Each structure stands twice: as structure tokens, then as C-alpha cells.
Structure to design on (576 residues):
């Protein structure tokens, strides 16, 4: 079986989940199978020096383009698929992967499963576990090869970084595909972390949809102040404009690893868990006992969050030694 | 500009989901269905484009409660509304409906197809890239800003860690909207009543053209709780325990 593990990078760095995709392929590779890493972007050099867990690297070098539009990435991947005839293509569930996976599936007609957590081989097919309904349900599926799988970041360990044997690196120029792309990149905005950087915060109080309305954010903010924590929000809270984008935790926000993560009214969609599940101490409060946040929480409570915030604030303010 | 926007009715994930008896689906009998949140943002982006540049907006809704949501779409400014009939009690697979959406886009001479970037039932793939690939139109997913730009669009996409990328793209195109340029608007009861007179067109699902993506052998609920400790539902007790837990973890002081 030949597998293509799709990898990504921005500027001169590769994304950490790239090594997870290689490891996901490696984990089901038998003797004689081949794991081919596919990379398209500016960091072709970094890819060659870190994707050694793959048997080969096919790198479309986009020197001069910090990021590559998904349309160009998908076109380069299609060419690679046509040349390599793989049995399986693993695409990361990322901003880029969202545009690439179904595009490839539509144009090849191959099966596609998204939000994949587990992959096992079963003869000529794969047994795959995929998430549905915001992580509340797991689907055990049988997929016939060839197929495309869009794999959740964090579902597989990272492969050991190391150089790819120079003879096993096939590099070509990505710029023609970028230049002929109907989607042209005109600007990349990287946020200024001067005001707040959740990624270095030691304590975070995160509010989710359960906070109800904008005025209630202040109650959580007061608790955060008492705890010496940064206030943060899940996507719905930030989309509503109740907190600034820089305070968003999750896939499209920041990935954080504080010593304390207190989640108030956060349901814990997979995209949120991706951003915070490695926190040292996770305390979750949600009235829905089936909320997926409890799957990663060290301590969970199902009481009303406003009652709890009031009680906890009182006790912390009254506690001696503060 | 002619815009086609797709509105999918999906089970309310905040509610309790129960598995069907055969274990291959969820029990849909008592579920609340609501408009996919991302599709709501796609609708808003469509209306904002209409207000900004005089587009016409056709809304296609799929699933239980489609008529209700189409009236809401008309009240918000959609010019034409169509309910797409699907099998009862079937989940809305983006892979399955993509061919019909693509055909509708052609029939309506659409320049732009807008839909939410994801839905909770798109385990077989996301709608925007499927439709884009079928039509061979460029597609961008995860947008949070869409502006008319000459004959095309200027589109901003979220890339994670707060990084945003702005693209220029020609029409026709397909966008998977994550967040509209402005939060979705509320509509008044009087506008809703007025819009309830809007005739709702009917359409049926065409064959997907794709082979089945996978066989769902079994659905299951994730193991609850992991190794976490349940502190219960009494706020006073929970607060007492948390004070102790914070202290034990060296987090009592700032």
C-alpha cells in the first residue's frame, strides 16, 4: 500500500501536525508499504530536514510565497496523486485541508471521511473512527481504498523529526501553480501579541456560549482578575463580538497550555479541544453532563455557572493569605 | 451578482443526542433541528453583499424546518427561496447534496455560492469544496470577510493562531463561510409575518454521482468523563472543592 501524508508550513516553518500525518500513515504501514510525505510551501528545506519518518518526500517549493492558496496546493497534490497512484491520502483538518480534502475526493471520486481520530487496517479496507455532531458522537466506519481521510490534529502522536535521505527528496517548483491559481493571496495578517498572548498565559478563564450574553462576560472577567488569569472565549463568543479575536482559544484561535484552564459554559467542540486539551489542570463547568469538554476535564461540575462564579469569587476573595 | 446560499437544518448539538435502535444513526424523532450556525453566517454574508452591491440572493434550505428558516431568510432579504426535499430521517451529507447544489447554481445563473464552512453532519466531506470542484470554480473555506472587488471578490480567511489571509478571486466562486463580516441580524416579528407570504419553491435531490463514501457500521457515544472527577451540581459544594483543588495545585495565590 502506498500512502501520501499531506503536510503544511507557513513561511520557513512546517506545521507540527505535519509530523502527525506522517505518523498516522506510518502507524498502519506494513512491511513493503510506502509512506510518501507531500509538502507544498516555502518551507521545503525544513520539510526535508524533519520529515525523515516518511520513506520519501515530494516537495513543491514555493520560495517567495509565505503561504500557498489551497487551490494551488490541491492542484499540486492532484498531479502528485496522478503520478504516484496512492491507495490512501491523509489530509490534515486545517484551514488548508478543509479546501483540499473534498476537492480531491470530488475530482477522483474517491471516498472521503473527515474528522478522523483512529485508523486501522482490515484487509483491503480501513476501519476508521470519525467524529460527528461536534464530538458528541463517534462513527465507526469501513472505508474502501483508495480513499482520502481528513485527520484531526492531535489524534496521532508526532513522528520523530529527522532528515529525509537526500536521494529520497523530489523537489519541484510550486510557483507556476501559484501563479495560475484563480485565488491570489494579497495579504497575510499576523496578530500583534503585545496586548495579550494567551499562548504564554499561566491561567485562563474561558467562557463559552453558555455565558449567555455580553454583559455576563464581566462576571467571568471579575473571577479571572481574582485568579490572576486571562479571560478568553470560544468561537461563538468571539464571533458575537463579545471578546476580541486575540482572546479566542481553539483551531481558529490560539493553542494554549496554561497551568489552569477554567472553562465556563464551554461545550468543547473538537475545534476548541484542539486548542486547550494539553492544559495542566482543566476545570469545566457546564449544565450539560454530556458536553464533550468533560472528556478532557480533570474536574467537571454541572451546576449553574453563575452560581458557581459567585460562590467561588466570594471564597477566593475571603480566603486568608491573599 | 447572483448569489446562491445553502441553509442546512441540523440536529441541535447542544441538546441530548440518542442513538437510533440500529446503532447507525441518531434518533431523530424528538430532536430539535436548527439552522447550521455557519450557514446562518453565510446567509448574512449574502445579504450584506446584496446591500453593498445589489446582488440577488436565492436561498436553498434542506432538512426539517426548512420552510420556517426560508421565511426567516426572506425576511432578512433573500429574493427567492427554495426548499430542497430530502429523504425523511436522513442525515444531510454534503457529499450527497453537492451535485444538486451545483446544478441549482447553474440553473439560477449564480456567480457565487455561499454556505457554511462545515456542518456537524459533513463527516463525508465539506460542501464548499465539493461544489467548487464539481463546478470547477475556485473555492475558499473559513472566510470571515467578503467584499466586492471590481468584477471579483476580496476574501479574508482565518488560518488559526489569529493569522488571517486575504485573497482576491474572480467570479464565479464558492465560499465556505466561517463568520460573516457582521454578526447575523435579528428580524422583527412583523417582517417575519410579511415574509411568510413569500412563495417557497420546491426542488428534489438529484443523484449525487459519487459512490458511497463509507459504511457507517456503528455510532457510539464517546466514553464519558475520561478520568476526570465529577464535582456534582451543587454550586456551593463545587466552589468549596475548587478552592481546595486550586490550593493543592499551587494556584490559590495569584
Amino acid at each position: 500500500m502506498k500512502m501520501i501524508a499531506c503536510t503544511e508550513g507557513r513561511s520557513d516553518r512546517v506545521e507540527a501536525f505535519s509530523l502527525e500525518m506522517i505518523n498516522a500513515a506510518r502507524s498502519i504501514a506494513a512491511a513493503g508499504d510506502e509512506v510518501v510525505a507531500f509538502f507544498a510551501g516555502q518551507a521545503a528545506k525544513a520539510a526535508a530536514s524533519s520529515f525523515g519518518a516518511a520513506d520519501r518526500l515530494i516537495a513543491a517549493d514555493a520560495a517567495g510565497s509565505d503561504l500557498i492558496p489551497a487551490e494551488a496546493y490541491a492542484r499540486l497534490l492532484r498531479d502528485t496523486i496522478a503520478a504516484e497512484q496512492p491507495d490512501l491520502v491523509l489530509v490534515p483538518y486545517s484551514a488548508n485541508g478543509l479546501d483540499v480534502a473534498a476537492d480531491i475526493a470530488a475530482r477522483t471520486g474517491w471516498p472521503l471521511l473527515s474528522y478522523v481520530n483512529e485508523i486501522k487496517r482490515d484487509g483491503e479496507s480501513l476501519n476508521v473512527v470519525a467524529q460527528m455532531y461536534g464530538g458528541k458522537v463517534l462513527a465507526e466506519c469501513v472505508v474502501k481504498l483508495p480513499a482520502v481521510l481528513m485527520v484531526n490534529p492531535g489524534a496521532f502522536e508526532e513522528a520523530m523529526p529527522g532528515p529525509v535521505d537526500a536521494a529520497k527528496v523530489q523537489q519541484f517548483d510550486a510557483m507556476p501553480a501559484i501563479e495560475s491559481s484563480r485565488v491570489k493571496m494579497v495579504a497575510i495578517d499576523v496578530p500583534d501579541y503585545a496586548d495579550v498572548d494567551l499562548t504564554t498565559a499561566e491561567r485562563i478563564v474561558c467562557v463559552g456560549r453558555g455565558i449567555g450574553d455580553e454583559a455576563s462576560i464581566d462576571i467571568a472577567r471579575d473571577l479571572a482578575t481574582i485568579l490572576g488569569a486571562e479571560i478568553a472565549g470560544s468561537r461563538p463568543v468571539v464571533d458575537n463580538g463579545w471578546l476580541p479575536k486575540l482572546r479566542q482559544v481553539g483551531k481558529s484561535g490560539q493553542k494554549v497550555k496554561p497551568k489552569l484552564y477554567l472553562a465556563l459554559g464551554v461545550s468543547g467542540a473538537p475545534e476548541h479541544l484542539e486548542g486547550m486539551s494539553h492544559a495542566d489542570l482543566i476545570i469545566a463547568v457546564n449544565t450539560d453532563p454530556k458536553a464533550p469538554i468533560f472528556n478532557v476535564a480533570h474536574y467537571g461540575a454541572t451546576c449553574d455557572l453563575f452560581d458557581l462564579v459567585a460562590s467561588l469569587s466570594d471564597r477566593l476573595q475571603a480566603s486568608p493569605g491573599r | 451578482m447572483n448569489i446562491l446560499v445553502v441553509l442546512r437544518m441540523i440536529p441541535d448539538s447542544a441538546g441530548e443526542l440518542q442513538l437510533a435502535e440500529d446503532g447507525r444513526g441518531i434518533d431523530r424523532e424528538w430532536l430539535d433541528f436548527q439552522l447550521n450556525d455557519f450557514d446562518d453566517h453565510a446567509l448574512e454574508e449574502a445579504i450584506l453583499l446584496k446591500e453593498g452591491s445589489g446582488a440577488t440572493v436565492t436561498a436553498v434550505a434542506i432538512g426539517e424546518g426548512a420552510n420556517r428558516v426560508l421565511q426567516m431568510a426572506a425576511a432578512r432579504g433573500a429574493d427567492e427561496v427554495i426548499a430542497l426535499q430530502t429523504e425523511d430521517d436522513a442525515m444531510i451529507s454534503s457529499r450527497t447534496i453537492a451535485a444538486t447544489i451545483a446544478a441549482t447554481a447553474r440553473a439560477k445563473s449564480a456567480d457565487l455560492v455561499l454556505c457554511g464552512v462545515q456542518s456537524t453532519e459533513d463527516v463525508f466531506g465539506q460542501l464548499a469544496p465539493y461544489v467548487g470542484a464539481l463546478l470547477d470554480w475556485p473555492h475558499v473555506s473559513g472566510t470571515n470577510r467578503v467584499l466586492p472587488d471590481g468584477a471579483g471578490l476580496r476574501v479574508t480567511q482565518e488560518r488559526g493562531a489569529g493569522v488571517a489571509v486575504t485573497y482576491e478571486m474572480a467570479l464565479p466562486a464558492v465560499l465556505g463561510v466561517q463568520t460573516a463580516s457582521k454578526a447575523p441580524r435579528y428580524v422583527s416579528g412583523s417582517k417575519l409575518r410579511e415574509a411568510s407570504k413569500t412563495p417557497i419553491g420546491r426542488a428534489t435531490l438529484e443523484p449525487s454521482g459519487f459512490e458511497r463514501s463509507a459504511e457507517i457500521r456503528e455510532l457510539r457515544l464517546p466514553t464519558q468523563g475520561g478520568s476526570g472527577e465529577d464535582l456534582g451540581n451543587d454550586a456551593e459544594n463545587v466552589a468549596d472543592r475548587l478552592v481546595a483543588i486550586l490550593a493543592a495545585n499551587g494556584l490559590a495565590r495569584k
Q: What stands out?
A: Chain A touches chain B through 105 residues (CB under 8 Å). The two ends of chain A are 62 Å apart (CA to CA). The first strand of chain A starts at residue 2 and ends at 7.
